[in-house]
Design goal:
Helix content of chain A: under 10%
Number of helices of chain B: 0
Helix content of chain B: under 10%
Oligomer: heterodimer
Distance between the termini of chain B: 36 Å
Largest interface: A-B, 31 and 29 residues
Structural class of chain A: mainly beta
Strand content of chain A: over 45%
Largest sheet of chain B: 7 strands, mixed
Number of strands of chain B: 11
Order of helices and strands of chain A: EEEEEEEEEEE
Number of helices of chain A: 0
Shape of chain B: globular
Amino acid sequence: QKEVEQDPGPLSVPEGAIVSLNCTYSNSAFQYFMWYRQYSRKGPELLMYTYSSGNKEDGRFTAQVDKSSKYISLFIRDSQPSDSATYLCAMSEGGGSNYKLTFGKGTLLTVNP
Amino acid sequence: NAGVTQTPKFQVLKTGQSMTLQCAQDMNHEYMSWYRQDPGMGLRLIHYSVGAGITDQGEVPNGYNVSRSTTEDFPLRLLSAAPSQTSVYFCASSYRTLDQGGFGANVLTFGAGSRLTVL
């Protein structure tokens, strides 16, 4: 079993829809959870990060972490065509010397006008 | 503020040739890393560095070499290119957030990528 599993999609939604993107993981030592957005032929860029369990909201984006279920989600409200991109989840363990991120394979999202 | 700069953006090599992908950052980040991204495989860590003079292997290091003589630069060398190394390569530098619990999230800033084709 891969450490991080992410449904590659593709996911296609109409403009204005609520989008739910998810990842599951197997490593219970993961403590930091991140979502990156990658536009076509560009480098990934950080959207949000959270520590341990709970929710975090930033504008139209909400990240949720459920450590008991080893499940994280990213919700996009009022989705826009500009949200069309690949969304990558990433996770890392705690510890001052641990810099390594483990990425999911990414979910391709298309928001249709 | 340029962030993370990768050169070249595109490169075509023949099997057996060697080359260096350049990466430079101007954010004074201690941590730098190289990833390759292949369809259906996601981002895979090749090598990383936690500071000048310190490098370590990631998930897929074979066929690649790195060095870190300065904080700013982290070149990736392909020793003898193979078709299996056809990929998009991303360099990243990072900092720790220190605004949440524990030791902080390692937040990566990626370059724009280098597309390499090996014939």
